[in-house]
From TrEMBL:
UniProt xrefs under SUPFAM superfamilies: Nucleoside hydrolase
GO biological process, one term: purine nucleoside catabolic process
Keyword Disulfide bond recorded: no
GO molecular function, one term: purine nucleosidase activity
Ranges for domain Inosine/uridine-preferring nucleoside hydrolase: 4-291
PANTHER family: INOSINE-URIDINE PREFERRING NUCLEOSIDE HYDROLASE, NON-SPECIFIC RIBONUCLEOSIDE HYDROLASE RIHC
GO cellular component, one term: cytosol
Keywords noted in UniProt: Glycosidase, Hydrolase
Protein name according to UniProt: Cytidine uridine-specific hydrolase
Length: 303
C-alpha cells in the first residue's frame, strides 16, 4: 500500500479524490488537512469531514490555513458553489476535527509514521510551505509530493496561472524549491482527462457513493459538453496507474508577481537551470483509461 496524506480544499473534484483515497485498498490515507481555496477553510474542513463521515472512514481531519502566505484570498465559489460541495445532502453529525492545526498534525503524523509518506496536495500549498518553514526535518520522511496544480500551457484563472498555484504562489515557490521530489499534475493532463457525460450518467445508479459523486459533479460550474475536469482525482490515478500518465523531468519555477503571477514555468529546454530538474511534470494521459478506472473504483465501493 501507499501511505498518503491529503491536503485539500473540497471542492467537487477534491471530494472525488478523497473518495478514491478512502476506498482504494492500495492506498492508506493517514490524515486529511484542509486549506482555504475553492471556499473558505471552515467550509473546506467541514466538506472534508463530510466525505470522511459519508464513508464512516477512520481518518483524522485537521483544519489548516485560512489565507495564503502573502496574497489576498479569492475563492472559487462560482465553480464549486457556496458550500463547495453542492447538490447532495450529507450527514450533519460530523466527527470533530483534530485539536491541532494542519501544520501541527502534518508534523506529528509524518514524524511518527513508520513508513515514509507521499504528500498529496489538491488545494493551494500554504500548509505545506508553513510546514517546511517550521519543521524542515519532515522533508526526510516525505518520499514525494504528488500535487495537483500548475500548467505548462494555459491557465484557468489567468492566461498564465492555474487556480491552486494562483491562490498562493509564494507557497508554491517554497514547495518547488524545497528539494522534495515533486510530481506536478497540472492542467496539461487534467483538462484532457474529462469525466465524460456518459461516465457521469453511469455513476448515478451505481451505488450511494456513485449517486453522491453524480449529484455534486452535476453541479460543476466549469463543465463543458465534453465533460467535467476531475483535476484532483488525477493525483490518485497517477499513484495507482503511473503507466497511464506520461511525465517529463524539468525544473519548475513559480512566478510570484506581475501579470504572470501564479504561472509555473517549466524549463523545458533545460536552458535556464543547466539541465537540473525539481519535478516530474505530467504532460499526457490516457483519458479513456482514466474514465474506465474512475467508474471501476466507484463501483467497488460497498453501500
Ligand atoms: C484546481 O482548482 C480547484 O478549483 C480544483 O479543486 C483543483 O484543485 C484546478 O485548477
Ligand atoms: Ca482542489
Amino acid at each position: 500500500t501507499i501511505k498518503i496524506i491529503m491536503d485539500t480544499d473540497p471542492g467537487i473534484d477534491d471530494a472525488a479524490a478523497l473518495t478514491m483515497a478512502i476506498n482504494d485498498p492500495q492506498i492508506d490515507l493517514a490524515l486529511v488537512t484542509s486549506v482555504a481555496g475553492n471556499v473558505t477553510v471552515d467550509k473546506t474542513t467541514k466538506n472534508a469531514q463530510k466525505i470522511v463521515r459519508f464513508f464512516n472512514a477512520d481518518v483524522p481531519v485537521a483544519a489548516g490555513a485560512q489565507q495564503p502566505l502573502i496574497k489576498e484570498f479569492e475563492d472559487a465559489a462560482r465553480i464549486h458553489g457556496e458550500s463547495g460541495m453542492p447538490g447532495y445532502d450529507f450527514p450533519e453529525d460530523l466527527p470533530k476535527p483534530l485539536d491541532m492545526t494542519a501544520v501541527e498534525a502534518l508534523h506529528k503524523y509524518i514524524m511518527e509514521s513508520d513508513e515514509n509518506i507521499t504528500l498529496v496536495p489538491t488545494g493551494s500549498y500554504t500548509n505545506i510551505a508553513l510546514l517546511f518553514s517550521e519543521y524542515p526535518e519532515v522533508k526526510t520522511k516525505i518520499d514525494r509530493i504528488v500535487a495537483m496544480g500548475g500548467s505548462l500551457g494555459m491557465g484557468n484563472m489567468t492566461s498564465a496561472a492555474e487556480f491552486n498555484v494562483f491562490t498562493d504562489p509564494d507557497a508554491a515557490k517554497i514547495m518547488y524549491q524545497s528539494g522534495v521530489p515533486i510530481v506536478m499534475i497540472g492542467l496539461d493532463i487534467t483538462m484532457k482527462a474529462l469525466l465524460t457525460p456518459e461516465s457521469l450518467t453511469k455513476l448515478e445508479h451505481m451505488n450511494e457513493a456513485g449517486k453522491m459523486l453524480h449529484d455534486i459533479i452535476s453541479n460543476d460550474g466549469d463543465k463543458s459538453e465534453a465533460g467535467s475536469a476531475m483535476h484532483d482525482v488525477n493525483t490518485i490515478f497517477y499513484l495507482l496507474h503511473p503507466e497511464a500518465i506520461t511525465t517529463k523531468d524539468m525544473w519548475i519555477d513559480v512566478i510570484t508577481d506581475g501579470p504572470a503571477i501564479g504561472e509555473t514555468v517549466g524549463d523545458i529546454r533545460g536552458a535556464y537551470h543547466d539541465g537540473k530538474t525539481n519535478a516530474k511534470v505530467a504532460v499526457d494521459i490516457d483519458a479513456a483509461a482514466f474514465n474506465k478506472w474512475f467508474l471501476e473504483e466507484v463501483s467497488q465501493i460497498k453501500d
